[in-house]
Design a protein that fits this description.
Chain lengths: 436, 233
Amino acid sequence: MFFYYLKLGAVNLKRNPIITALMVITLAVGVAAAMTTLTILRGMSGDPIPHKSDRLFYVQIDTGPVGRENPNGEPDAQMSYTDTMNLWRAAKAPRQTPLMGTSDTVSPERKDLQPFITTGLAVGADFFSMFDVPLLEGRFWSAEQDKAGSDVVVITRQMRDRLFGEGQSAVGKRLMLSQRELTIIGVLDTWSPLPKFYRLVGSNRYGSHEDYFLPIEYAVRVESGIEGQVSCTSRPDPGFQGFLQSDCTWLQYWVELAEAGDRQGFADYLVAYVNEQKKLDRLPRTVNNRLRDVNEWMVQQGVVDNDTVVATWLAFAFLAVCLVNTVGLLLAKFSARPGEIGVRRALGASRAEIFSQFLTEAGVVGLVGAALGILLTLAALAYVRQYARDIALLTEMDWLMLLTTVLISLVAALGAGLLPTWRACQVLPAAQLKSQ
Amino acid sequence: MIRMNKLSKVYRTHMIETHALRGIEIDVQPGEFVAVTGPSGSGKTTFLNIAGLLEEHTGGDYFLDGVNVTGLNDNQRSRLRNEKLGFIFQGFNLIPDLNLFDNVDVPLRYRGFNAAERRRRIEEALAQVGLSARIKHYPSELSGGQQQRVAIARALAGSPKVLLADEPTGNLDTQMARGVMELLEEINARGTTILMVTHDPELAARAARNVHIVDGLVTDFVRREAPSLVAVA
């Protein structure tokens, strides 16, 4: 009977075409508003690495003098070179990596290409396995190369295509970064998590991704330029070494634990570390560490801004208003058909069958509304892409969101159809048949 | 086929009770053609609605083809209505958005026949009323008489035991009414029980048996040997 009801639903779309069109448009506009904001909200707030987000932790240690603490009680978002390297070299977690933004001038070997400035990341060798970075060709650097700060680099596929031509192998070739020569040992496959959860501080969270990856020891050794945020509470001693030995915070630090339950153990280790440093007349503030998993860190960093959350709520409120209108239109549409209901009841339809038929009809309106809603959502996202470039990469609609659009439209239409359908079931057939 | 014992129907509002039927006693045998007559407001439409399971009676018993319908729920009544009864209305009551095929298909869908069986029955029923050539037409493309014939085809398609007709020729001119009446007589001759409400004495005279209802009571029975085949004026 379901397909029979679907067929009737399709036939009845043509009945009262103006009311039908109004219903579909009302529903589609409401769904499109909701889905546009939801798509952006999902892009902002979705778990970027769900299978291990509860095992990846961002580390913070409160650095700086007593009396100049953050009013909100938070330690600085980044860590000093001393603490970062101490923790990294101690390697108490199964995997760990420091993270530092860099910026360099690339001098292509090809004469037809002009030098250009681009950004990269200086990280530890564990970075790639911690964040599931895919490799297209070559390899990542080893722990030994990590410690030695070898002159090696891993570049992205886009960078390879740009420098050497699409599909050309880059492994073993040279890369000139700010007049320094490095050997390309690996090329990443496409990897563009959004937001850039691994680097929420000091970079555009929804912006373009880094083009190259260096061992952090190399970046420090060659005094590579820092691309990101540097925070100092006092003037560091002169020179790069003075900067390294200061309490300026400019490095980010991630650890991956074997189990989520290992968190407390690592937190205890951090407390012990800070207390050890205090004995060396460092870290004078009260112990105030933070160990946040990926999702906690994204929340703390306000990855989902309040405007987007409010916009999403408003969009769903608008959808609710659209639904109220759809209820009214469905009531008008169904109330014009008591004669048909009477006939169907006389010919053997039970109330349940009338209910199923009319609810299916509401569902058909929902499906048509979904189709139009998807088109309107795509148009709205294209508009956002055009005029809000900082979140342009979040405006892609995947299959899940398309499916969600259909489901929301369907559920909305079925919800809106409940009252009109219930009223249709209450029609007394005898009264209608005589009055026809 | 239809047996009612002391059947009554009372409509109640918060202030008023209206006795539409007051202890109807009737026994319609299989294959009978019974005309139900009576003045306006006598209760004959209420009687037909209860016979057609479109309304529930408030007192007495009603047996349809041996099944006591008292206390049946909506699903059971709907199933019984679909399997045992066919309806013909004064206003035809075809669904305007469906073509003839789909109109006749309606009761068969609720019966749960498969597609092939439904098609066979629809084509057979429309052939029986002489409208095979119009199978894809819509009701608005037909005359009143043709529409009533479609309604008869729809009623017949499910092979009902009883055909309930409420003023079946009330909206038709003389010639069309004659054709419909002859069709009903033919259907009855093939064994289908017919219960027809009419206020037209000439039409009633063509039934084998008349039941007269006044003020909710059966007041008169007239049994005839055979239906006369005179033209309806």
